[in-house]
Each structure stands twice: as structure tokens, then as C-alpha cells.
Design goal:
Length: about 140
């Protein structure tokens, strides 16, 4: 006889815990408006000095004033995990020395005009944990 499936729910976490979860990983997704829709691109990131530096295969001209970066770690079998979204104004990193540093430390998917380094200044940090409901 098998056990009844457990119900899961999302529990909001504090901003400090959400940033702690974000710092513990390096892979996520850059989300930005493009033409009449939304574009989602894989990205690598590092949290430094209160800003999020993201390397993603997206043209710098397409990433307008505001972007979002989403990171999650959901484990299907035990039914646990978390998700964090950071949003705010984004700017391209144009200083050649700084860009060279981040290109060495953040691995990318493409090289050329669509390999972009962005600095995201967080205005909103939202995080959730996946939790089991009590029976």
C-alpha cells in the first residue's frame, strides 16, 4: 500500500534569505522585454557589492532599463526547493578591464555580439520555499 501524496505550498522568505539563496548558486535566467514579448535567456551570475552581475547570451541593446533575473532549485523527488527573483534597472558593463574580469570568472554560452555582461541594481527581491503541508 502506498502513502497518500503530500500537498506542497510556497512559503515566502525574507529578502535577506532570498539573497543568501541567490549567492549560493551561479546559474539562472535573465528575463527582459523584447519587441512585443518577453525574452528568457540562460545566465551566470555573481553577487558583488550590492549588485548582481549577469553574463547572458542577449544583445545589450535589447535589455532595456529594467530586467529581472530568476534562480530556482526545485527537487522533484522529495518535493522541496526554492525560487528567487531579483528585478531592477540593468546596465551594460562597458569598462574593458571590468568586462575582462567577469568574462574570465563567469562562463558563457556564446561569444560575440550576443554575449553580454550586465549589472542589475535590485529594487525588488522575492523568494519562496517549497514546503510540505501538515496533514
Amino acid at each position: 500500500m502506498s502513502a497518500a501524496p503530500t500537498s506542497l505550498r510556497m512559503v515566502e522568505v525574507s529578502g535577506a534569505e532570498a539573497l543568501w539563496l541567490l549567492e549560493g548558486t551561479s546559474l539562472g535566467r535573465l528575463v527582459y522585454a523584447q519587441r512585443n514579448g518577453t525574452a528568457v535567456r540562460p545566465g551566470r551570475h555573481v553577487w558583488e557589492y550590492g549588485t548582481l552581475v549577469v553574463r547572458a547570451p542577449a544583445p545589450a541593446a535589447s535589455v532595456r532599463a529594467t530586467a529581472a533575473y530568476h534562480v530556482d532549485e526545485i527537487r522533484a523527488v522529495p518535493g522541496t526547493g526554492w525560487t528567487v527573483t531579483v528585478s531592477g534597472p540593468a546596465e551594460a558593463i562597458t569598462d574593458p578591464d571590468e568586462a575582462a574580469h567577469y568574462r574570465r570568472s563567469l562562463s558563457g554560452w556564446t561569444h560575440g555580439p550576443h554575449d553580454t555582461l550586465l549589472r542589475l541594481h535590485p529594487q525588488s527581491v522575492t523568494g519562496f520555499r517549497l514546503a510540505r503541508t501538515e496533514a
